[in-house]
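assembly run, all chains below
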Amino acid sequence: MLQYIARRIVIAVPVLFGVTIFNFVIMHLAPGNPVDMFVNPFATEADIAIKKAQLGLNDPIWVQYIHWLQNLLQGNLGYSFSTYEPVTQMISVRFGPTFLLMGSSLLIAYLLAIPIGIISATRQYSTIDYTATTFSFLGVSIPHFFMGLGAIYLFAVVWPVFPTGGMNQLGGDGGLSDTLRHLILPALVLGTGVAGNMVRYVRSSMLEVLGQDYLRTARAKGLREFIVTNKHALRNAMIPIITIIGLDIPLLVGGAVVTEQIFQWPGLGQLTIQSINSRDYPTLMAINFIAAAVVLLSNLLTDIMYSVVDPRIKYNK
Amino acid sequence: MAKKRKAAAWLGIAGLSLSLIAGCAGNSQPASQQGTSPNSTTSAKTMMLGMVNPPVLFNPINSPDVASSFVEGFFFDSLLDMTAPLQFSPELAESFDSKDNQHFTIKLNSKAKWTDGKPITAKDVVFTMNLVANPKVETSVGAYIAPLAGLNDKGKLPDGQTSLDSVKQIDDYTVELTTKQPVDPNMIKEQLGSKLMIMPEHVLKDIPPDKLSQHPFSQKPNVTSGAFQFVQYVKDQYVEVKANPGYYKGAPKLGKVFIKLMPAPNLVAQLQTAEIHLNVGMGIGKIATQDYETVEKMNNVRYKVEPNIGFQTMEINNKTLPDPKVRQAIQYALDRQLIVKQLLKGQGEVIDGPYTSVSPYLNKNVKVTPHDTDKAKQLLKEAGWDFNRTISLVVPTGNLVREQSANIIQQNLEAAGLKVKVTKYDFPTIMQKGRAGDFDLLLIGFTFTLDPDVSSLYGTGGAFNFMKYSNPDMDQLLAQGKAEADLKKRHEIYDQVQALIQKDVPVITLYSDYDMAVVSKKVAVGESKYFGMLYNLNQWDLTGAE
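ok done. output:
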């Protein structure tokens, strides 16, 4: 097993390397460049030329890439083209909020979706099933921004229980309960959206397993129905669900761009959009690099989880 | 059994979160009443401002956007402030005079101190201006110093020179500036007086000029001159500033100010819930027109709608549409009043040219080109226009009114018989298409100075002259206008500029949209306005004792 993990990690390095080249090229192919965002009418042509030279934008693209790679190998992600802050600092400040928001919304999603999915599969075509599938359908199809604005209107303006946005009360103590209060609306909005999708996966995956012979055997042994569904059936139904969870993990660092914007959540999603709009190459490269690394890592984790859930799946050699 | 225990634990958590919600319900009072505990030197009063555009950095000579410059105004003072169109009030400079319009004497307020206690002297003024002139320093305000004598053709210090002779320290509190030729003193006062913020020489002098932009001072200025001091900028959330008790115009009455960042729709919501006291207008904290009605119905605020000097244009590619008749036809085809009426709910104005009603240089005798589809058709026929040709209209995303105006423009042009293809791009793409001339019509907005020089838009080779307009008469007028010190003659020159714009139609001014400034009734002093908003910052106050 350890050997397998080590081998996967070794393979991941060239993949990651390839991803960075691909990103770098795509980014430079996009029309416009950072200096184009220098639209202050008081900047003279000379000012623009100076800026271009200092940012290294006059070098050929491959030289720029090698500079970036050299810095990366020394653990230096460079300076942002727009704010001149070290990129590492910009990302680390936003990583926590994104992780908190996405983590809690995924948690909400799974806590809602897995039980609802199981219930709706075991009582197929019942009222509960229809209600659950209808709501999950709504959850999938209502856009997050709409749900977000609706939630702000209802729970912050009409019935002011929660703040309209942000992560902490200004001038407040910034304590845990304060953050929680700000977290609830965006996490619920995101969570229900993800849950809508998830319910459908859990339900169909459970349905597939429920009809199988070994469950009849289990019941024939006299096991309680609760054990049959939640232990024997669910475990086999988990494989496709784990795949979905594995695909969700990169969201933890990618963030939810639109929702973060609406709730002014200071996360990576907002930073990404700002960096794209200002063609902030170093920041974009760093975000892409981290996202790629997390995707590779979560793929590995997913594969390991398979073998935990289903002992028939073994990775030897 | 284990399962049951787990279930019980979950119920517990659910109960906890319910009580949490209940606990919060009673705790929804406005943030201003929860300010930090009072101490002996500064007030506990906290004001909250709402802004949409996030500032980028706080290096006054290198910030590329209005939002950053606005925030810098809280902690950096300039020499003067423009408190009404071309009216200047003293800040760091007690006086800013000239006898011959070529030599300007600046007397500094000797009471002014940096926040570290050091006096603000002539050295700082000389240092700041030389910094902008230094070819190794990244700056976005090079145009401010352009009228000064002794610069090379790029507007920078000539090679091998380390300081400008035209910026001279006379004594500790006196500086003399010399311009290339006599100029309109208002131009110098606006650019070098009211716009350029002075930076601390004793803090920055040892930083290599090419490393200045990356220096932490650019993000967290720790020695400043303004009524407030920088505390922190929590990205995408807020900028926090606190009172500077040693401020030379008197200690501020507020203890703290937060400039909160939020999307435009949230501005009105937060004004309603009293989470913010006022919106920053000036295009960076703009209340959407569709929200005007909501504001008018709110009873916890005062509001007013104010014109400004920004304007939206449609640049016409003079290379692909070289016939002035075609360009005139396009102008006649447009129903700009409809844009103002429908999209701005009447809160805007239609002008021909770059001067809005705020500008003293707007020639009010010039009749704005009316909407006349028949005239447009006739002009197109006279020009021998090929009615099968499709022209492209390129629209930047991000400004909703501007995006919607593209639909009206398209309908107007089609009514005159033109075929139009609309494409939308993000801003960097628009800039590239503009520079490359890859468009027929392109929408873009500008905010220049009150000084009437518009060479960058109408002059040959101007930085924003994407239409590649080039008329020697125009170039000559613009050059004369810049060099003219006599106010009356300047007015005459810019009247001619406006007449020529109407004739050539190199670019169509679509509209200038007003800003709505909303202020909570809890605010005693302080409001959002276009001129001199931050001039009386130290007087800003909330009503009532807290």
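DSSP finds 13 helices and no strands in chain A.

Residues 87-122 of chain A form the longest helix (36 residues).

not gonna interpret more than that til we talk
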